[in-house]
Amino acid sequence: MLSLEDLKNSVVDFNEKSFRINGKPIFIYSGEIHYFRVPKELWEDRLIKVKRAFLNCISTYFAWNWHEQKEGCFNFSGWRDIDEFLRLCEKHGLYVIARPGPYICSEWDFGGLPNWLIGKNVIPRSLDREFMKYALRYYDQILPIIRKHLVTKGGNVILFQIENEYFWGNVPYLLSLYEAVRERGIDIPIVHNVDRFLRGTQIIDSIDIYPDPWDLDGPEKQAESLIEEQPDKPKMIMEFEGGWFSSFGGRLPTDRGDIPVEWTDMLLKTMIFKGFSLINFYMFHGGTNFGYWTGKNIASTYDYQAAIREWGELGDRYWVIRLIGALIESFSEIFTSCIIDKTLITCKDPDFQVSSITHEKGNFILVTNKKPERADVTIFIRDLGEKRIRLNGRSALILPLNVRLANGWVLEFSTCQVFYSYDLNGRTILIVYGDPDSRHEITLIHPFNGVRETVNFTIYEDDFFKLIGDSSSSLLLVALSRERAARTWFAEYLGKRIALISGLSLLRNYSSDGNSLRMDMDFKKGDGRLIRMILPWRPRAVKVDGKIVECTYDDEKWILSIILPDFELQGHVLSLEEDWKYVEEDLESVKSGSWIEIQRLNPPESLGIVENGHLWYFNKFKFEKKTGMSKIILFIPRVNDYVSVFLNGEFLGYAKHVARIEIDEKKLRDGDNEILLLVESTGHRNDGILPIANGLNEPVFIGEEEIIPLKNPCFKVLKEDSSLKPGVPAALDYSKLVNRPMEVLPPECFSEGW
Q1: pLDDT tens column, 723-748
Q2: Omega into 102 within 30° of 0, i.e. cis?
Q3: Are the beta carbons of 294 and 303 closer than 8 angstroms?
Q4: Which of 178, 452, 536, 580 has its CA 20 to 30 A from that of 224?
Q5: How far apart are CA 410 and CA 427, in angstroms?
Q6: Which helix (DSSP H) or strand (DSSP E) does residue 159 occupy?
Q7: How far apart are CA 287 and CA 516, in angstroms?
Q8: Angle between helices 129-147 and 171-183 (to 10 degrees)
Q9: In 3-state terms, what secondary structure has residue 321?
């Protein structure tokens, strides 16, 4: 990432391959984190972990209802201090994709729209005048904060997204938001997430991909459609499957079960080789839906089986993303400006898929084994001939071909994947990795004499080092196991990049004073204790927790080896078996409390009750008992979401959304009766289209039940007639269609042809 000084007065533009800052192409490797799902005290911890994964960008929604929970009362302080969140992103060298809605979805209450809108009878997500009035007022509050962090102002916000996932068109609404954003000083590229009808307009469209594991056909077709319909703009995946959410009563770790990390590896590599230069992992860290801020039926956990788990631990997906991120950072110029070449590599085996990208500075090939079994495959590379590759079942390898390294070295070919490559004091460092016990070969070409040298080696648990070259130029080849490569960290000292090869969980921070390099590491039970550092000088001493430890140094290869001492790790066990308290709720005290009297069932939101949670309803009614009465039924046609029913002080039953409860006649009094309803509203629909109110939505019926069959029902199929003609879907106000169809569709849709 460019320094803040470099970013002052920057220009952000794009071509068909990538976004650019001051003409320099950038590969945006991004992770989604929501500040409203992570306590403020943990923001920096999560951002450090993002940065260490070789991501260069954060994408975040800004939830309108998080900042204007009550109408007209905006809050950007404390946990809601987005200025501080953006500042921390700047501090850690991370770009930001700002996604302030007004609608965000995100499995968040009402999709981020404030609940008080429900009491306004507006049509959300549309050009409805009242909705736009409130949405633009929100923009007037939040955009000035985002604006001062734009990359064009020396900040780090590189892209701005309007709305979210408006799959159904309504281009006039989205263009209206575009104009509003431009008028308010947003001078960076404006994007949207999944609306094919926007392609060809000023707004750059992207795709979401959440395919079932091992199904590459779906995302590949999405990619081909985007490339065909939007050929002049960068290819973006604004939401790349980083896991999935969980709902009440659903499965863990996600509603879709386990999302294998091997699948993430295969899918990610496939989409990179489709030419995508912006990939945003949704989620990279999910966090928690605290309180009642979640969308309807969504669980409080938003772990998402993401790279950084809900509790902050680095999950298995983290290491997959990190390994590929290191490759992209090392060869970003190739990955941002490459050409897809379908003739460079071929394979006759139908169970394998191959692809390649080419650039003047080198090429990379992708070999994918779609079978569940490990297998060998022969590939044919133009100008190089046959190569035999071994792949694990359902795996993909990115392999280099004639790639230029630092100091003029050329990596002609490798059966091993590249982790990172860089210059260190004039020596080229090349770090590769593979699975334990796998055999590999690498061919390198000397920068001055053109001599080829092929190195054959086996990946073991221990690290492999080989110094190649002569006095005029040298290259250190480092071959690691996949696990050791994933946990190889980098620090900076005197302008030099220092590699720390380890089994440690995290390099949290590092600092130097000119005489020493200090690194703060996270170590957990089971982490390996062998550390090797690539240093161009012999250190005077090495200390761990202030104590000098023994080490060895290889003067020729510049390898410092350290065995960490045994650490005493103390576990903390929390007991939840003691010190519980409870209180029995007294219904009489509930009835004697302060009540809001209403003449009809107004939405709680229209009464200023905008927080989700529990509501009591109380009413009195007269009932006349008659001889020979059949079953007495209490019927509640609609309640959001859960209701507990009490009749004359006794609990009758519990239901979700619709209640039908048979009443024992003995519990009904002849004359005056009392009914209490305890309603729990867990959150609104997160589609943001249907503004369904909390609480009790329909009258309660008590009496005898009669079943009346529906005779001669009528229906009609809405065909592609005058209401659906070319161009209409792009302009169709879908939200208005759902909420007020008779104002959108022609009268004959409701009168003829039943």
Answers
A1: 555 555 688 899 999 999 888 887 87
A2: yes
A3: no
A4: 178
A5: 13
A6: strand 157-161
A7: 37
A8: 40
A9: helix
CB 388 within 8 A of CB 347: no
Q: Is 434 helix (H, G, I), strand (E, B) or coil?
A: strand
Catalytic residue IDs: 165, 239
The residue whose two tokens read 């431009």 is: 182
Return the minimum-mean-pLDDT range out of 556-560, 631-635, 706-710. 706-710
Is the CB of residue 103 less than 8 Å from the CB of residue 163? Answer: yes
Which residues, including other chains, have CB under 8 Å from residue 30's CB and lie 6 or more apart? 55, 56, 57, 58, 59, 95, 97, 278, 279, 280, 281, 284
Amino acid (1-letter code) at residue 326: A
Q: Is 264 exposed, middle or buried (0-12, 13-18, 19+ CB in 10 A)?
A: buried
Q: What is the pLDDT of residues 207-260, one digit of tens each?
A: 999 999 999 999 999 999 999 999 999 999 999 999 999 999 999 999 999 999
Share the mean pLDDT of the chain.
Answer: 94
3-state secondary structure 414-430: ECCEEEEEEEECCEEEE
386-394 contacts, C-beta under 8 A, 24 or more apart? 387/413, 387/415, 389/415, 390/415, 390/438, 391/352, 391/367, 392/435, 393/369, 394/214, 394/262, 394/263, 394/266, 394/369, 394/370
Give the residue from 618, 151, 184 showing the smallest Cα distance to 162.
184
Which tokens go with 275? 């030419």
Question: What domains lie within the chain, and their CATH numbers?
Answer: 4-333 (3.20.20.80), 340-563 (2.102.20.10), 587-704 (2.60.120.260), 711-754 (no CATH)
By residue count, the chain amounts to 754
Please identify which residue in the block is written with the tokens 């054959």: 456
Cα 290 versus chain centre, distance? 18
Q: Exposed, middle or buried, 384 (CB in 10 Å: 0-12/13-18/19+)?
A: middle
Residues 339/362, Cβ–Cβ less than 8 Å:
no
481 burial (CB, 10 Å; 0-12 / 13-18 / 19+) is buried
**Other Cβ atoms closer than 10 A to 378:** 12
